[in-house]
Design a protein that fits this description.
The structure holds two protein chains of two kinds. Helix content of chain A is 32%, strand content 31%. Chain A is α+β, with helices and mostly antiparallel strands. In chain A, helix 6 (231-241) crosses helix 8. The longest helix of chain A has 16 residues, at 81-96. In chain B, strand 3 (24-28) and strand 4 form a beta hairpin. Classes of the chains: A alpha+beta, B alpha+beta.
């Protein structure tokens, strides 16, 4: 590829190649605080390619490819090249990672214990993890939580936080430093998207795993409430939230059973960030 | 010669069962599938682990364990309904792959 960089997030190293300089420059700016891994062997390769050779210049359009691909993925305009790279990196993890049970969940750590938050896209789990990261919690990731197949500990995957639509302005209220935000990407398939660099302390400690203590199913936009989630319902919902549960076979089953048997789960509904912080602190106090 | 249908549980090495709350989850190694078990399937498996193979034997084991028939003079038709429902559950377990069905001649221990 004409332009290339390597990015080290949690235990994974990505080699990203591009037909254009712009997405690589944006990635390097967003991931400038991450460990240098230029000479490391990559776990996954991602390519941002022109659909046709002339589409490098004429209505430039990015086609995602790499070790793992979705054949019917639509190309994105070059202005959304950064989003394309992030989507392709997520795809590699979702389809190719086998060293941990991979949960579609955000995670933060405090007092040596991990709080997991899972739910549908738009539930508020990314925003809540970003919010907690500014309130004394160590950010472990907003997209994937990696469950150790032997110990059950949670390994972080603290890539840049993907904020969508109203969460962008909300995050600007609680993150003082404008320099940590990436470019605003408008009219993407998920609306407006802006990436946020995690705090540098979180990036520096991204190799440190910790045991989980609490699992939450946040729902933003509903009247304040909490409701325990029984273990079997939790188990079934987490099999749906895992991209590699089936591929891992018995190892995934055992890791998930251990998680739901040892970690209490609650659904929480909230309408404001203050309510979310109060609910999290109340539930956290009950488990640590 | 009259025949009876036996239901044989997969060998213990082929599956793991874990209790989560009132429900259980079962991982079946040969198929790689996970099953969520709700009443009465865990109780049926327990009866089969004690050696019950035919619907009658399973029903007898369940009755002994759980006192399902509270009234001694329960109409025979209801017993037959219970047996039909139990056989349906056993057939579902066969479809899921962790129980196999064998038809044997009565008095003959060998499968046909």
């Amino acid at each position: 590829m004409r332009y290339e960089c390597r990015i080290h997030v949690g235990p994974a190293i990505f080699r990203i190649g591009s037909d254009w300089a712009q997405p690589i420059e944006q990635l390097e700016a967003l991931y400038q605080s991450y460990p240098d891994c230029d000479d490391a062997i990559a776990d996954f390769t991602v390519r941002l390619e022109a659909q046709r050779f002339y589409r490098r210049w004429f209505r430039p359009s990015v086609r995602l490819s790499g070790d793992y691909m979705l054949p019917d993925a639509s190309p994105l305009p070059l202005a959304q090249g950064l989003l394309a790279a992030e989507m392709a990196m997520n795809l590699q993890m979702a389809l190719g990672w086998r060293r941990h049970l991979l949960l579609h969940a955000s995670a933060v750590e405090r007092d040596g214990k991990v709080l997991l938050m899972t739910g549908e896209s738009g539930s508020g789990k990314s925003t809540l993890s970003a919010l907690l990261a500014e309130h004394g919690w160590r950010f472990l990731g907003d997209e994937f939580a990696l469950v150790d197949l032997d110990s059950g500990d949670i390994h972080g995957f603290p890539r840049a936080i993907s904020l969508k639509n109203s969460a962008i302005d909300a995050a600007r209220d609680f993150v003082g430093d404008d320099a940590r935000f990436g470019p605003l990407l408008t009219d993407t398939p998920k609306g407006a998207i802006r990436h946020l660099q995690p705090p540098e302390t979180a990036i520096a400690a991204m190799g440190e795993a910790a045991p989980p203590a609490l699992l939450l199913y946040p729902s933003f936009g509903y009247t304040r409430a909490t409701d325990p989630v029984p273990p079997t319902e939790n188990f079934v919902r987490l099999t749906q939230a895992s991209t590699n549960y089936v591929a891992l076979g018995e190892a995934g089953f055992s890791a998930l059973v251990n998680l739901v048997q040892t970690v209490p789960a609650h659904a929480i509904d909230f309408e404001t960030t203050d309510e979310a912080l109060e609910l999290v602190e109340d539930l956290w106090a009950s488990v640590v | 010669m009259p025949q009876t249908t036996h239901y044989i549980l997969d060998p213990l090495d082929n599956w793991i069962r874990e209790t989560l709350d009132e429900m259980q989850v079962l991982y079946h190694r040969p198929s790689g599938q996970t099953h969520v078990l709700i009443e009465p399937v865990p109780q049926i498996i327990d009866a089969m682990l004690q050696g019950a193979e035919t619907p009658d034997e399973v029903m007898t084991a369940l009755n002994a364990q759980y006192d399902l028939q509270s009234e001694e003079d329960e109409p025979e038709a209801e017993n037959e309904d219970d047996l039909t429902r139990l056989t349906a559950r056993l057939d579902e377990m066969v479809a899921l792959g962790f129980v196999r069905r064998e038809v044997r001649e009565q008095g003959n221990k060998d499968a046909l």
